[in-house]
Structures are given as structure tokens and as C-alpha cells.
Amino acid sequence: MSESHPPIRTPDRHCEVAWFSALCSDDYEYLGVPDGDLRSSYEHCGEIVRRADANGYQNILLPSGWIAGQDALTFAAAMAPQTRQINQLVALRMGEVWPPMLARAIATVDHIARGRFCINIISSDLPGKKESNEDRYERSSEIIQILQALWRTDGPFEWHGKYYDFTLPTTEPAKPYQQNGGPLLYFGGISPAAQDLCARHCDVFLMWPETEDRVAETIRVMSERAAAYGRKIDFGFRSHVIVRETEAEARAAADRLISRLDLAKGAEIKARSQDSRSYGVQRQDELRSQAKDLYIEDHLWSGVGLARSGCGSAIVGDPDQVLAKLNRYMDLGMRAFVLSGYPHLDECDLFATHVLPRLPTCRLNERQGRLVADPVTPLTTAPRV
């Protein structure tokens, strides 16, 4: 990376590639059309994790929401002994659990996983409760500080804050397997309060799909925010992907995905998510409204956002085109990709076959100092599809 780029924690040009397990009723053959075989059961979601592990992905995102499916932290504990090399990126909504007990639960899963565990910090509304941005992010900041203090300090511990006030005789129950400071913290959000939270406390700032010029600008701004706190952070890109042997086949697959979608049903599906009116989701909707034939820019298709809150776009193209798009993001400073596709098992195999072996992969694996590239190779050859 040239010196003209913003400073990031991992200057080496490597990337951590993660897949996604649909714990929150988010797997379809046709977007918005429920399929019993793809429901968010323990069996189906577990198979997605095991497939991603075998295909050589370095991480997998486990989402969280008040939606029929699986609880992310409980699910991660069950899956850890069933995997060989993959990390699990567990989405945790701050404020749902009393912080000392949350720290203890995290430490327990971290030990089961032997350190193959990281956290996606979520600050959206708690189920059934509406709060201001200020309250949500202030509380999240307080909880993160409590967690990190419990992970890193020994002996008695006191906390006297705006939201929490307690005294503990010891921090021992919260000690994680990762004795170098605890799990890595990933975070995403575009409001000023969200960005400040990440700059102060977290390790990887995740972005939803944007135009490349906006991606570059966000990396610059967030690097400056982190530097103001004496820190460096890494950057990740959360996107769906549709890769086929030819561009025409990939575009046809995208069209097929929404070919049975009822737009009113799609809006209903989006509205059930706690983050459905967040700044980030509104930005995704804005991009789609300006898109030509649902393409925000070359090979970035926004059709998924017609029936999904959160990440609403997919990288679409043949293997060379998808690889080129990811390489451009890496040139901008991206060091992590969290990918998914519909159905999740099929697209997991397709990406692993056509693109993953061609990326300079790494594992973002150090909690203190800059993150260090740790190349890994797939445990098995991805199935040809």
C-alpha cells in the first residue's frame, strides 16, 4: 500500500474472507419466497458453517435479531467443536445481557472455540424498545469498555457509569481464551455516533455496499477519526455475491433471484428487522433509487435490498470481474470481506470454486498492535459446481 493511502492496522495486502450463516430467516432460492428446506434451523445453519469451514473461508458471520431462527452466541458455542479452522463472527446486541454475565458468556464460548471467536458489535434498538441514537451508542460504548476491562485486568473490579454501576470481587470468570486482550471487535454504522464508537473502541469497521468513491472517502474519514484517539483500525466490506462462469449467467441469476418477489412482501420482510430505519439502511435505499436497472455501479447490483434490511447489494459477474472488484476494494484499504448469497450453501461453493483460491487470504488474528496477515489454505478442495 502506498503512503498516500490512509493508515490502517494491516498494511499488508491480504484479506480475511468470511461467509454468512442465515440464522435469522434469511435464506431463499427466490428472494422473499419462504422455503421450508432453507429455514433457519440448527441443521441448515450448521451445514452452512461446516461448508464454509471446509471450503477455506477464514470467518463466518452469525447475525442476531428478534426473528425466528437461532441465537448467535448459543449457536456459536454448539458449532465451535464441529469446525476445524474457521473463526465465528458473532453479532451481539449491546444491552441485552448484564455486562458481567455477557463477559462470562463470551469467555466461555471463546474457550470452547479455542480463540476462533470474534464479535460484531450491534447497537440497534433492543427488541420491543425504541431509544435515541445517543442512548444506544452511549450504552454500547460503556459496555465495550466494561468488557475490555474485565478481559484485561485482574483482581477486584468496579464500574460506576451512566448505565451500569457495580462492584465485582474478581474478574476471573470473564477471562477469555484469547489472553492478549479478548476477541476482535467488528462494527458497522454510518451515523456520526456510530463512527465515533468504532474509532474509539473497535478493530474492524464494516461497510455495506457503496460506490467506490464513497468507500474511499469513508476509509479516509474513519482513519482520521481513529487517529484522533491514537488508534488504527482495519476495514471490511459486507456484501452479497453472485458469481457464474459468464457475466450473462451471473446477471441472469440475479434476475432470477427476484423473479417471484412481491414488493409489498419484500417491504414487510425488511420492516421486521430492528435496523430497518437506520441511517445505513436508508442509504442503501437511496442508492437503489438512483440505480440504473438496479446496478449502483458496474457489477454492484442492489436488488437484494428489495426484500432485505441491512446489506442490500451484491457483487455480480464472472470470476474475473468479481475478483477485479474485490481487488479494487483491497487497493482502497479493505482487509476483510463478509460475503453471502442465495441460497447460501450454493453460493458458498460457487465463490469458493471460482474466486476464493485467487485471493491473498489472511486471518485477522492479533488483538493488540496492527493485525497480522496469517495466510491459510482451504482444508479441502471446494466442490466443482
Question: Can you walk through the features of this model?
Answer:
The protein is α/β, with parallel strands linked by helices. It has a domain at 16-239 and 331-358: Alpha-Beta Barrel (TIM Barrel). It is built from 11 helices and 13 strands. The chain has helices at residues 42-55, 72-79, 99-112, 133-152, 192-201, 212-228, 247-257, 263-271, 279-290, 319-332, 344-354; strands at residues 16-20, 59-62, 87-93, 117-122, 157-160, 165-168, 185-188, 204-207, 234-243, 295-297, 300-301, 314-317, 334-340. Strands 1-2-3-4-7-8-9-13 form an 8-stranded parallel beta barrel, surrounded by 7 helices.
Taking all Cα atoms into account, the compactness measure Rg is 20 Å
Instruction: Give the percentage of residues in beta strands.
Output: 15-25%
Low-pLDDT runs of 5+ residues are: 367-385
The major beta sheet can be summarized as: 8 strands, parallel, barrel
Structural class by helix and strand composition: alpha/beta
What is the CATH H-level superfamily of the domain at 16-239 and 331-358?
Luciferase-like domain
Topology as H/E string? EHEHEHEHEEEHEHEHHHEEEHEH
What distinguishing features does this structure have?
TIM Barrel, eight-stranded parallel beta barrel, two-stranded antiparallel sheet, globular
